[in-house]
Design a protein that fits this description.
single chain, about 850 residues, alpha+beta, 4-stranded antiparallel sheet, 33 strands, elongated
């Protein structure tokens, strides 16, 4: 049976006092009671940890001649502030000697204090007190502060005028006030006096307010509710982004409020309620103490007084409270109490036997059972819990999970698990990436007893990646390829079974490929060829896969290319002619030729033609063999031993010239056409064809063609022509005739593609300049036009850059402020913390309403 949780114990310490109690204040071991007769009673309190006892120290009968309406003790400054006979006075808290009287406060009805002790800005251990006082006098608020080292209050600013008399006043931090006027609460800023209306209070009980933590004020409204506002007048919301305003619902409208972290105590007419300040706002304790009229608390102990009695609500030991809360599975409140105890040096010793990490583990598991998966896994990650324990809570380990959760809950749990595993995976990869071998061991903790364990890095990587793969398969299958494309440590056979069950064949191929299990990949491709409904039924997938393999898998390529050649010979040939393997990883051509000769003789000729016609691609990547000195580099086939003897002497010269031109050997090609074949027209036609396709080698072609046509090559390269003729078994040509006029005609037809700097050194010195005038004029005009075009482009690019920078600055300067009352332009509901979209017309909508707004705007534009 669960034990009842009662955080406070109520004890009557004064009963049937002969004087009528008006107010009281507790300041450590001393309790000060103000009476209707003007007496101030000083009591000593002891034994709060067990059984509180009280002893009268002194009765100050001459403290005031009128009833003491209000008392406030400021312990750090040893000050006692009192309100009596319509005047606020300041006394020494230790001796109760009067220090000063605030003369301007005559006629005061109430006051409120705000005292904070911020840390010393200089970084030392000293603290500077910040005490502020607000006094209400006849529809005016007088504001004071206590300067450091002073003995009286000084005015903070000019008085604030109110439209009506205040019924209650309280500080909301040091910068704002909350004032109850007539029927509503108002927030007033201290610096400029700005007034903001909040909400009405209950007319039956009047205004009830109490300061809580983090510059927040609790305000009682109608319908027995308590709301929380900050110094800006905004609602305090729950911990989650989508939580609404935080409120506490009472069983009856309270007359007084008091906050003892983490509890909010409501004092009603016949009883006292204790509730928590969170989204649950559940009832914690109910105490039968009637007719209370004044309360005061200090360091977690609450004193309350009726007209003749004083009661003490002192907290039970924290360790006992936390143990009861753990038994009741209220881990959140237990952790909150532990945090409060750790911040209080006087109560920290009570928590020695509480293992807070173990409590957090149980809290995380409890969150998981309550379907708060993201919060649960975030806490488990923060605690460095062994991922094996976390994965064991999901159906990828025990099947009982599916009976507890299903549908949307199960999907949300997978999303949370994917986020958790991705975070753990990043940490493991960062650990592996450390350059210090071996990587240091990773320490985790068990979830049941929070005991440290050293994880096996290899097994942990496999567990995390395999679990993440399964999680993606259940929640978001589109992410599976992204996981398998990167370096992963998924268990091959287990991942294979999961992917086969989900029929994700492309992802299965990625799994095989990353594990270098190429034979399984090729076997899978062969089995799924032309299977209806399969994503890898196309033969192109098999061809592309084989093209990516290289020399280490030569036997595998030959074995699994046979069935492709049998079904589609052209696709089978592409495996070898379009192979993506390069360098030393490329298949040897002789091995491929032997394979095709034995397995597919009909493809051998096509493959050899490919090798001859496309061998220049290999040379263009820097693998062209270096020819002997003085001999231009011919085709690779012509360089093989005995290959030149297979060509007929002085035959197929035009074909030789065409192949040499493809290799960039323009000079030798033009020599064969113009000298050996005595066909300058063909040489000129070939030059025209090359010049019509601008490339990096166009200038070389121009130089060679001009050199051949103008006849200089016969005189200068007769020595070089002999080795070339001998290498290709060509007879020496006849003595050529100069063709300078043909060269000049070529210059006139292509003046812009042949630069003058490269042309003039090739022409004979005796060439008349008159014959070059047209060419030079056209070239200079073209160069000048290009120069002007480039200058114009430069100016346009500069103007465009300036316009783009100005537009970017203009767009970047815009801002969108989502206030509490900002509404959607489509549905007219408040946007709040929801995702929103902002249009160029400065209209703001919900993200879900964006499509409707976009349709409206497009309709207006089309109508215009």
């Amino acid at each position: 049976m669960l034990e009842n949780y009662e955080p406070f114990e109520a004890v009557t310490i004064l009963h049937k006092l002969p004087l009528q109690i008006e107010c009281l204040t507790y300041c450590g071991p001393t309790l000060l009671v103000g009476t209707n007769q003007g007496h101030l009673l000083s009591y000593s309190i002891s034994g709060l940890d067990k059984c509180p006892s009280i002893q009268l120290l002194k009765s100050h009968k001459s403290f005031s001649k009128r009833p003491i309406q209000q008392l406030e003790a400021v312990v750090p400054l040893s000050l006692l502030i009192s309100l009596s006979d319509g005047t606020v006075s300041v006394h020494n808290l230790d001796t109760l000697k009067a220090l000063s009287v605030l003369d301007r406060t005559r006629g005061a009805s109430l006051f409120a204090c705000c005292h904070q002790t911020p840390a010393d800005p200089g970084g030392g251990s000293g603290r500077q007190s910040n005490l502020r006082l607000c006094v209400h006098v006849k529809q005016r608020l007088l504001l004071y502060h206590w300067p450091p080292g002073a003995w009286q209050f000084a005015e903070l600013r000019q008085e604030l005028a109110l439209p009506a008399a205040a019924r209650a006043v309280s500080w909301i931090g040091p910068t704002a006030l909350c004032v109850a006027l007539k029927t509503d609460y108002f927030r007033i800023r201290v610096d400029d006096g700005e007034i903001l209306e909040l909400f009405p209070f209950s007319p039956a009980t009047g205004p009830v307010m109490a300061p809580v933590e983090r510059n927040t004020l609790a305000l009682c409204s109608k319908d027995s509710k308590t709301m929380f506002v900050n110094e800006k007048g905004r609602w305090r919301r729950g911990q989650k982004s989508n939580d609404g305003p935080l409120m506490v619902k009472w069983s009856k409208e309270p007359l007084l409020l008091q906050y003892l972290a983490p509890f909010l105590i409501g004092i009603c007419a016949d009883f006292v309620e204790v509730r928590t300040v969170d989204q649950r706002t559940s009832l914690i304790q109910n105490l039968d103490i009637p007719s209370l009229r004044s309360v005061s608390q200090h360091r977690g102990v609450l004193f309350a007084a009726s007209a003749k009695s004083v009661y003490c609500l002192h907290p039970r030991p924290l360790s006992a409270q936390i143990k009861v809360l753990i038994q009741r599975r209220d881990f959140e409140l237990a952790l909150r109490l532990h945090e409060i105890g750790q911040s209080d040096p006087d109560r920290a010793d009570e928590l020695r036997d509480i293992d807070v990490s173990l409590v957090k583990c149980h809290y995380a598991f409890n969150l998981f059972c309550q379907r708060q998966f993201a919060e649960s896994l975030d806490l488990l990650e923060l605690l460095s819990i062994d991922p094996a324990n976390v994965v064991a809570m999901y159906p990828i380990a025990p099947r009982e999970f599916r009976d507890r959760f299903s549908g949307q809950d199960l999907l949300e749990s997978y999303f949370a698990l994917a986020k958790y595993l991705s975070s753990v995976r990043k940490k493991l990869l960062a650990q592996i990436a450390q350059k210090v071998p071996p990587p240091p061991p990773i320490q985790f903790y068990t979830v049941d007893k929070y005991q440290p364990i050293t994880a096996d890095l290899e097994k942990l990587r496999q567990l995390v990646d395999t679990s993440l793969l399964k999680c993606y398969l259940e929640s978001n299958p589109a992410l599976v390829p992204s996981l398998l494309r990167t370096t992963n440590y998924c268990h091959l056979r287990e991942a294979e079974a999961c992917l086969k069950q989900k029929r994700m064949w492309p992802s299965l191929l990625l799994l095989y490929k990353n594990n270098n299990d190429h034979e399984s990949s090729l076997k899978l491709l062969m089995e799924h060829y032309q299977q209806p409904g399969s994503q890898i039924s196309n033969i192109e997938d098999s061809v592309q896969y084989l093209q990516e393999l290289g020399v280490p898998y030569q036997d595998l390529i030959f074995r699994y290319s046979r069935w492709i050649i049998e079904r589609d010979p052209k696709e089978g040939l592409r495996i070898f002619t379009e192979s993506q393997a390069d360098g030393d990883n490329a298949l040897p051509r002789i091995e491929v030729a032997n394979f095709l000769e034995s397995s597919a003789p009909q493809l051998l000729t096509d493959y050899l033609e490919h090798c001859v016609l496309h061998s220049d691609r290999a040379f263009s990547r820097g693998r062209r063999p270096v020819p002997p000195a003085g001999l231009p580099a011919p085709l690779p086939a012509l360089q093989r031993p005995g290959a030149a003897g297979r060509y007929p002497n002085n035959d197929m010269l035009e074909e030789r010239a065409l192949l040499l031109s493809r290799l960039g050997q323009y000079e030798l090609a033009f020599t064969i056409l113009a000298q050996y074949l005595e066909s300058p027209e063909k040489a000129e036609s070939l030059a025209e064809e090359i010049l019509s396709q601008p490339t990096a080698e166009t200038g070389d072609a121009a130089d060679s063609s001009l050199a051949i046509l103008q006849g200089e090559v016969y005189a200068d390269q007769s020595a070089a022509g002999a080795p070339a003729a001998e290498a290709y078994k060509l007879h020496a040509p006849r003595a050529p005739a100069p063709m300078t006029q043909r060269a000049l005609q070529l210059l006139k037809r292509r003046p812009g593609q042949i630069p003058p700097v490269r042309v003039l050194p090739l022409l004979p010195p005796a060439t008349p300049l008159a014959d070059l005038s047209d060419y030079l004029l056209t070239s200079l005009q073209r160069l000048e036009a290009e120069k002007r075009l480039l200058q114009s482009r430069r100016g346009l690019y500069h103007a465009e850059r300036l316009q783009t920078a100005a537009a970017f600055a203009r767009v970047r300067s815009g801002r969108v402020a989502i206030e509490e009352g900002t509404r959607c332009s489509v549905c007219q509901n408040r946007i709040g913390a929801s995702a929103f979209a902002r249009f160029p017309s400065r209209q703001v909508t919900h993200y879900g309403c964006m499509a409707v707004m976009r349709a409206r705007l497009s309709g207006r534009q089309s109508g215009a």
